[in-house]
Amino acid sequence: MKKKKKKQNINKKKYLITGIIFLFVLLSGTTFAYLINTNLGDVNEFLALKNVDIEYVDGESINSSDLQLPMNDDEVEQFSTGNSFTVKNNYSKDIYLRFKLIDLNIDSSTTTVFNDGNLRYALYQGSTKIGGGTLANYDANTYEVVLLNNYMQQASTNKEYTLYVYIKDSWQNQNHFLNTNITGKIRVEGYDKKLPTLATKIIDNNTNLLESVDSDGTTYYFSGNVDNNYIKLGNMDLLWRIVRVNGDGTIRLVSDASIGKSKFNTNIINEKYVGYTYNDTDTNGTNILNTSTIYEYLENWYNSNIENNYTIRWLIANSRYCNDTSISNQDNITYGASSRIDGGTPTLVCPESDKDYGGDYNLKIGLLTADEIALAGNSTGISSSNFYLNKGVNYWTMSPSDYDNYGASNINMYNNDLINYGYVDEELDVFPVINIKSDVLYEIGDGTITNPYIIVSDEEQP
Fold first, then answer.
1. Displacement of CA 365 from its chain's centroid (Å)
2. How many CA atoms, within 13 angstroms, populate the side-chain half-sphere of residue 353?
3. Which phi and psi angles does 203 have, rounded to 5°?
4. Alpha-carbon distance 180 to 35, whole Å?
5. DSSP one-letter string for 99-123
6. Strand partners, 85
7. Would you put residue 75 in left (φ > 0), alpha (ψ -120 to 50) or beta?
8. Per residue in 95-143, pLDDT tens?
9. d(CA 164, CA 135)
10. Residue 90 banded pLDDT, cuts 50, 70, 90
11. What number of CA atoms fall less than 13 Å from residue 279's CA on the CB side?
12. Which of 311, 328, 316 is nearest to 370 (CA)?
């Protein structure tokens, strides 16, 4: 690999909320479970259970007077009446339930209602919370929200469930909830087995997937000029590409477009600056952990675009990110990924390192490794535009290259389609990587750019 030329410049108050109308109506009648959501895809693979009944306990409507005061999440059972219903499993085997709100409409004069994350729901079975999350805006007049997926109810049992819709107390002025109208219906669907996860759908429907091993088990990854690995998350405009199904079942995504440019680090005259994080010593001799420039760049973007986006934040899993600082050549401090890429032996297992910088991280956002790019279809010294991670721009990977007399270098994807090296103080494009949870269900789409997988979740694990 050819290194690019170095640059020359080295007191709390609660507010009473009034005028809110919450009206949730349970679907009338029994044997409701045969109403299959047509967006589920291959519904013929599943038995829609007709011998499952629902009975009202508290009536059809939620009284808006019960929902005027904001409350903490742990106060819901105490201060909110909720709406209870009983599900009767008349089968002699266990079933799997899916709870939804359909025809949901949130009519408000301000978008703050949707964006602050305090319009919430909680689903209980008896006195046990089994699901919860945020009701958010999907830029649609009416839509549906999945409250909980694949909840098992034992054979021949009757169980009582209660849905609470409430305003979470932010200890700030919440008058933006005034004159907000909410309507919708509760639907419960029963199935004879668990609904398919997105990970299962990807693996079963893609014969072009390749198999390898990562630090958590068997992983399945896309390679070459694939055109069926697009995915859209919630209401984000940004499209993503599926890189692989990780060994733990989570799904690794990389943005299809750059989110901007950043240096990897502002300093280069020390080997530690190849690190995503690195240790320093303060004036008192105490060790402190520093974060790289690109770490801060990605964390800030994540907090603004995902953490504060209540249509997708519950989808994101903490997962492994490898900033491999293992040494393959001690004489000139060459790092492991550099030698593997040169030798044509990329790996998805993050090697151990004894350095006080870099290593194997567990985070919500990071970058691709050079190994992942190589496995996706590129290799050192060979120009290859015929693979999906060719972005036509220079962009950072998370993999260190080496440290020499001029400074610290990391591996990047170069705009002539080569895997290359660059000093860490260069400004290159950034393509963030995230991982979504292993239990996210397949909804719609075939992965093409015109019909991407679309994933929406308001579900929060209790």
1. 9
2. 26
3. -65, -45
4. 30
5. EEEEEEEEE-S-THHHHSS-EEEEE
6. 56, 161
7. alpha
8. 899 888 777 776 654 444 444 567 778 899 999 999 887 765 444 455 6
9. 12
10. confident
11. 9
12. 328
- Phi/psi for 200 (5° steps) reads -65, -45
Over residues 197-223, the pLDDT tens digits come to 899 889 988 888 999 999 999 999 999
> What's the rounded Cα separation, in Å, for the pair 305 and 326?
33
353-386 residue pLDDT tens: 989 999 999 999 999 999 999 999 865 444 456 7
Query: What are the residue boundaries of the structural domains of the chain, listed by start?
Result: 21-191, 197-462
Would you state the structure tokens that stand for residue 413, as one six-digit string? Answer: 């994807």
Print burial letters for 279-291: b (CB count within 10 Å at least 16), e (below 16): eeeeeeeeeeeee
Which pair of structure tokens corresponds to residue 78? Answer: 């105490």
Residue 373 DSSP label: H
pTM over 0.70, yes/no: yes
Residue type, 165: V
Assigned fold of 21-191: Jelly Rolls (2.60.120)
CA distance 458 to 136: 8
CB 258 within 8 A of CB 395: yes
H or E stretch at 203? helix 198-205
400: its two tokens:
């260190």
What is the secondary structure of 160-190 as a DSSP string? EEEEEEEEBP-SS--GGGTT-EEEEEEEEEE
User: Could you tell me if 272 and 341 are in contact, meaning their C-beta atoms sit under 8 angstroms apart?
Assistant: no
361 C-beta neighbours (distance < 10 Å), count: 17
